[in-house]
Design goal:
By secondary structure, this protein is mostly beta strands. It is about 0% helix and about 40% strand. The chain has a six-stranded mixed sheet, with no helix packed on it. Strand 2 and strand 3 form a beta hairpin. It is elongated. It starts with a strand and ends with a strand.
Length: about 180
Amino acid sequence: MPSVVPSTDGKVLTSDGTDWISEAIPTLNQNTTGTAAGLSATLAIASGGTGQTTLAAASIPTYTSTNIFTNKSTTPRVLTFTTDATPEVDSDDYDVVTITGQAAAITDVDMVGTAEVNFQKLIFRIKDDGAAIAITWGDDFEDAGKALPTTTVISKLLTVGFIYNTVTSKWGCVAVANET
């Protein structure tokens, strides 16, 4: 059975079981079929005018295409503080904020993102350092069905969920949960 392994000179080494031969890696262009070392490869790239590209029968998402992802996971972008009286959060870079040992009253949560989108989600998890801590959320936040929490419960994790509203240009509080 033929074997193919990478070479140190940018080529591939192929073997028929007896001898090894150094060969250039074949270049495959659009709608081209190529054969290398007895292995057959077909590359068919086509665009339907929507910016979406297909490779064989697979759909490859592009910046402008609309695709449905099934059975895929998204890793949240997490910003972590130990304690901060005026936490600054860039919603362009983070989806989740974790404060692990808040030791001072939070006097303002400053949102500095510039590319928020309607229905964008943001979750805060705040745990105090053993004393109840006051929270003032600031002008970037509003009640959107749940009142903004104003204090932590001693040594309990507080989780607060927000959804961005482009009509009000604010993060609307939609969920508040205290650890039991």
